[in-house]
Amino acid sequence: MNVFRRIDKIQAGIEKWTIITAIFGMTIILLANVFARTLGNSLTFAEEVGQFFIIIVTFIGLSYCARRGRHLKMTAIVEFLPFKVRKILVLIITFTTSLLLFYLCYISLDYTITLYQLGRVTAALRFPVYLITLFIPIGFLFSGLQYLRECWLNYKYKDEMIDGTEDPDWKREEADETT
Known about the structure:
It is found in: Cell inner membrane. Belongs to the TRAP transporter small permease family. Helix content is 75%, strand content 0%. α3 packs antiparallel against α5. The chain has one domain (2-174). By secondary structure, it is an all-alpha fold. The radius of gyration is 20 Å and the shape is elongated.
């Protein structure tokens, strides 16, 4: 199980630093374009690069939100159900969501491969489009893994409701290490 924890920590680091870098880059590029416009010139590539960063933040952020349990949930009816029924629903929903995200990963990867084969490039920078769309299947893959992890944790801990937060065993081990 130690291998899965390491993989999860590596994935969490990749998500975090990718999102930080993309938001920072978007801020710099778009602010530079604002200043350039005040001088009478616009950076022709700024809008294109800003769109790239938005794609990256959106799809890698999808996984980050799933990891933190910050994704949208429709719990108004579910909260009134008995615990066992809620637990079964959570298992079904997280597993089905995981399968859907893996399928979307497959479709978006096929699309990215098609863009690669066609040799599509962006208008302003002449940058290969597939390198940007590659973040879409990566985001879906990471998100699918997070929902599968949440499904597994809910199956493993039958007496607790796990909603995308850390693995309870990890929290216990960290608490033991600090004492």
